[in-house]
Amino acid sequence: MGNIIFREVETQADLAILHDAIKVIWPEVFTSILGEEEVTYMVKNYQSIDKITTEIADGAKYYLVELAGEVIGYTAYVIETDAVYISKFYLLASVRGQGISRKMFSWLINIAKVNGKQKLALRVNRGNARAISVYQHFDFEIIKKIDTPFGDFSLNDYLMEKQLTV
Question: Cα–Cα distance between 152 and 83 in angstroms, integer?
Fold first, then answer.
């Protein structure tokens, strides 16, 4: 495997590339969990270019994950008071299981350490058994259930955290 590159989403062209990736990744990940109608709604309302632009303006950092010049996923995070909150962590189905998540987590752990944070936090859909298993493999623990109304749907998540060693 070549080098994984994390390229910050900064321009309108980057946003368009990111959104094209989202339109492939979200159906791959979530159609079997949420159904096609909810996935379509989420891509349109939760992961739209306008929503992402607002999140970036509010301090979120979005990155394209690239391998050999191809976008294979994306991640986003926010520096919070006591943690780095990972708001997005997605890979194309074709590259899962190749150690890329490990490289992504190493990169995020470094960001946390550089920013003086001692934990990573994220939310994961409670029906996403594969992602929960991956996060637990990387020492994330389920902290609590969180249910958030979102339009006609509800986000039924676990809050998971990983304590970092100093």
Answer: 30
Would you say 47 and 19 are in contact if contact means Cβ atoms under 8 Å apart? yes
54's CB contacts (< 8 A; 6+ apart) are: none
Q: Any alpha helices (H) in the chain, and if so which ranges?
A: 12-34, 36-45, 49-57, 100-114, 129-137
pTM above 0.70, yes or no: yes
CA–CA dist 123, 132 (Å, integer): 10
Query: What tokens were used for 74?
Result: 């994306």
10 burial (CB, 10 Å; 0-12 / 13-18 / 19+) is exposed
Q: How far apart are CA 16 and CA 9, in angstroms?
A: 10
Region 18-25: mean pLDDT is 96
Band (pLDDT 50/70/90 cuts) for residue 125 is: very high
Using CB atoms within 10 A of its CB, is residue 86 exposed (0-12), middle (13-18) or buried (19+)? buried
Question: Average pLDDT for residues 77-95, to the nearest whole number?
Answer: 96
| Count of beta carbons in the 10 Å neighbourhood of residue 141 | 12
Nearest to 74 by CA among 14, 133, 150: 14
The pair of structure tokens assigned to 123 is: 């939310």
CA dist., res. 59 & res. 77, Å (int): 9
Q: Is 67 helix (H, G, I), strand (E, B) or coil?
A: strand
